[in-house]
Design a protein that fits this description.
Helix content is 18%, strand content 41%. The protein is built from 8 helices and 23 strands.
Length: 454
């Protein structure tokens, strides 16, 4: 993208020099029909860069925005339009401190390749202007496989009491775009908006949405995932990222939809800049681990402790004892980096697949087996799920007349086939392990008598 290439230069300009006109724009494509996408163009300009005009005892700043969109294959000019932009100001002080004028315009574009030229100029001085050129491809998002819209970056999203008459209102949300795609330590919370399509017509029983954040060196600094409901054709995916822990850099937010069976996937990504002079990136000494440039390098003490607590069932006794002795944040970060690195089954790849699978299991057990007083990963069913994964078969007996509720889990591929039996002694959903045929697990062939009500 030309805009992506220009933005770093623009950022340097904004930092070290004064532009005649500070004008920002960004765009995102959303589903429209089987032959077209809907293109939204977001823009902002700043009163301080324009000369004040006085009309009927009221001061204004006025600008003209021009947008031209041309099909690069046919040379057809599909958009060639001017907009008058105006904002009242009380006086020069109000002009200097005034907020940016923010707006959005939209167009339906047929499938194809396009060149976009967009500019804004001060009506009183045509030399005070800013121009951008951009090339885009339109590939209709309404199709037979699932799809993701472009990612729209925002400064805030209102979901309660959203103004339905706002130009930024869509799908019950008021999404205020950030055309500059720059965030800073003074505004470190990034909001994002996207749309997921064609979910219901997809044959996959389970679709996973991954959210990842990469720095400019392609280091993975944050990731999470969740299961997407497929009972609706399209849904909105909107959320936030708190960037305050990260150093100044260029980052890429990636959304990835995955068919859990076929492993087919589609992605959408968005680059942005984050300015945080309060965080410096330490250089590693020779021979030290590279944890500072990974997701572990930005963890806080509480996050380190929480991650290790959830990982204890994988740890050797000496590792548990070693972690207990650590009292420095950097030591905890480095310990966790090495802890997961030695469990990485494919160290030649950037992603630690084992860690990813394990943490996805943490989310699953916390959702399924949590009780009023116990998180899912600390329950017996949660521990077994974390270690061995999804059972091949589960037989549930919640309403037997002569026993407490119990479950039998079968794993057909472990040791030629093993079972785990769990019983709910208290009747509150906290199932305890009663018996297993797995070597090294609790064994009690007479488990049925322990939960007998007779």
């Amino acid at each position: 993208m030309k805009k992506t290439l220009l933005l770093l230069f623009t950022f340097i300009q904004l930092t070290f020099s004064q532009n005649p006109v500070k004008f920002d724009f960004d765009y995102a494509q959303f589903q429209y029909d089987s032959t077209s996408n809907y293109l939204e163009i977001y823009y902002s300009f700043y009163p301080t860069d324009f000369k004040m005009l006085k009309e009927d005892d009221q001061y204004f700043i006025k600008a003209k925005m021009h947008i031209q969109i041309q099909n690069s294959s046919t040379d057809e000019l599909v958009v060639n339009k001017d907009w008058g932009l105006s904002q009242p100001v009380k006086d020069s002080a109000d002009q200097k401190n005034g907020k940016a004028l923010l707006g959005v315009v939209g167009f339906n574009l047929k499938a194809g390749s396009y060149n976009i030229d967009i500019s804004v100029e001060d009506i009183t001085n045509k030399k005070s202007r800013k121009d951008y050129s951009e090339s885009i491809n339109v590939n209709p998002l309404l199709r037979k496989s699932f799809a993701i819209s472009d990612v729209e970056l925002a400064t805030r999203i209102v979901n309660e009491n959203a103004n339905k008459n706002s130009i930024f209102y869509k799908n019950t949300l008021e999404v205020f775009p950030n055309p500059s795609i720059i965030y800073s330590d003074k505004s470190p919370v990034l909001f994002y908006y996207s749309e997921l399509y064609n979910l219901k017509i997809n044959s996959a029983p389970k679709i996973i949405l991954e959210k990842k954040l990469f720095d400019s060196k392609n280091n993975l600094v944050y990731e999470t995932s969740k299961e997407v409901q497929t009972n609706r054709t399209s849904i909105v995916e909107a959320g936030i990222l708190n960037l305050k822990k990260y150093p100044t850099d260029t980052y890429t937010l990636v959304l990835k939809l995955i068919d859990n069976n076929s492993k087919k996937y589609t992605t959408s990504s968005k680059k942005f800049f984050f300015v945080n002079p309060g965080i410096t990136v330490a250089k590693n000494s020779k021979g030290s681990s590279n944890y500072l440039n990974t997701e572990f390098g930005v963890l806080e003490v509480e996050e380190c402790d929480d991650l290790f607590e959830k990982s204890k069932i994988l740890a050797e006794k000496f590792e548990i004892d070693e972690y207990k002795k650590l009292d420095a944040l950097d030591k905890k970060r480095e310990f966790l980096f090495n802890f997961w690195k030695k469990r990485d089954e494919s160290p030649e790849t950037q992603l630690n697949e084992f860690k990813k699978i394990y943490l996805s299991r943490i989310d699953a057990v916390n959702s399924r087996y949590r009780t009023m007083s116990t998180p899912g990963y600390k329950t017996d069913r949660g521990r077994v799920y974390l270690l061995y994964g999804e059972p091949d078969e589960v037989d549930r007996f919640p309403n037997e007349t002569d026993t407490k509720p119990y479950e039998i889990w079968a794993f057909n591929s472990i040791e030629g086939g093993v079972i785990f039996v769990f019983g709910d002694f208290g009747g509150y959903g906290l199932y305890e392990l009663l018996h297993s045929t797995k070597r090294g697990e609790l064994q009690d062939p007479n488990w049925i008598y322990r939960i007998s009500t007779n």
